[in-house]
Amino acid sequence: RGPDAFTATGQPSGETAAARAQGGEFLTTATGTRLPDTDHSLKAGVRGPVLLRDHHLREKITHFDHERIPERVVHARGAAAHGVFRAYGTAATVTRAAFLAKNVETPVFVRFSTVLGSRGSADTVRDTRGFATKFYTSEGIFDLVGNNIPVFFIQDAIKFPDVIHAGKPHPDREIPQAQSAHDTFWDFVSLHTEATHHTIWNMSDRGIPRSFRMMEGFGVHTFRLVAEDGGTVLVKFHWKPKAGVHSLVWEEAQLLGGVDPDFHRRDLADAIEAGAFPEWELGVQMFPDTQDQTYEGIDLLDSTKIVPEELAPVQPVGLMTLNANPVNFFAETEQVAFHTGHLVPGIDVTDDPLLAGRMFSYLDTQISRLGGPNFDQLPINRPHAPVNDMLRDGMHQTAVHAGVAPYRPNSLDGGCPFHAPDGYVEVPFPVAAGPRGRLAPASYDDHFSQPRLFWLSLSPVEKEHVIAAYTFELSKVFEQTIKERQLQVLARIDPVLCGEVAAGLGLPVPEGVPGADPAPSPALSQVGRTWPVAG
Ligand code: HEM
Predict the structure, then answer these.
(1) Where is the Catalase core domain (predicted)?
(2) Distance 130 CA to ligand 1 centre (A)
(3) Which of 2, 88, 125, 321 has fewest C-beta within 10 Å?
């Protein structure tokens, strides 16, 4: 593989940049032949016809015809930046990952995104935000592919196509906010109550962040860190923005969606250009690596659950600073390929069934999105560690591999490459025995205690915003039965929440809902009703 095309600050480096710059004295074809004229096609006579033999015309138009690649199936709209991560060294006792050793500086590339909108959609919509970080470490690439919400909609990746089908624009009209699209989303989440926790975060102010610079990020799953001596701990990763967590209010988000649909990407690029570099502290919540993989009764392999920070404080392990905008959106922001399987020694995954599906999905989708299996050779995806693999050929291969024996051991190319004694090892965590089946632990059935915890943690104004969001979104649902079923879900979170939303929708409060909590949270008398009541 060639030299890195981008420096740590995002500037194209060395030969690659020079070769690609549009700065030469003369225009050429793709194959380097100088062009005297790129403004007129080759014709027989002044008024044509245009001749088929005009290769320059065909090359120019053919290349243009193929300029677009498929957008990401989810997280299609994003904005990104380069930066650097400096480790405090506080994690060095629990992980042998070299980039977490004291004062080690590692180049990073971060892509923020919405989940459901297409590439051209608006930035300020109510949605989850992606927060994906590529660490170009000395030991290979580590990707932390997280979101700005600490829990996920589903517990098992087998439901991912279903939840996305329900949330994407409706198949007939392709209108994201159409009446019918609201129906599919609320149909899904009211029938799959494991989504209740993520949904209430979406309906809170977290669903409409003020800026990418003011969002938290979460690895969501529990990961396993491995120390030099082989000892392990379980962790959850958190990004804490130095600028604090801030949100828009709904009316601002709506106005910005029309006035400046690029609000978040503009904000990020402008801040970096002005030298106001956004910063986040990376932290971990740490748990003992016990056989049952629970902490204080919370299942650490259930991605719909958090561990409250009161039970496990977030311990800072380093600081990330974003200090350079991409030079070329397509080459960097669009072609970057994150993967939960990009791990370095000292960091391992757990058996969270949601994570297991992600370990398959990213490479699979990128083969189709980026046109074959060689996208790791694209400048933005190249590791900053030496690569010596036995992967060969394939669509868009750009490396010229020497040697004749891409297998090992061999007796032709000197018998190499050797296995690295200090290389990446999956932790031999014992697998619990049991019957084979499409199974889930009983703890996965608790869908309401944590949404209630979240609701109770909110201030009165934040609660008002949640009520307003549920009321507004459900007012766009056409099917009465879906609204009624969602009110039953809300009754199981909190009677006050349910009652206020029901009143806003002009519907009766559901009675006798099994599992509904008898003790309502305090009434919201301090704050007047400020949201538009559905008509
Ligand atoms: C893309 C996060 C669950 C499949 C992304 C991106 C993020 C993300 C941040 C955008 C990456 C970028 O900026 O390029 C998450 C989180 C999840 C989750 C935090 C749960 C905790 C899943 C699951 C699947 C999945 C369960 C499938 C089984 C995908 C796919 C893409 C994607 C196919 C597009 C990738 C590409 O085209 O490069 N995800 N995701 N995700 N995710 Fe997830």
Answers:
(1) 28-416
(2) 8
(3) 2
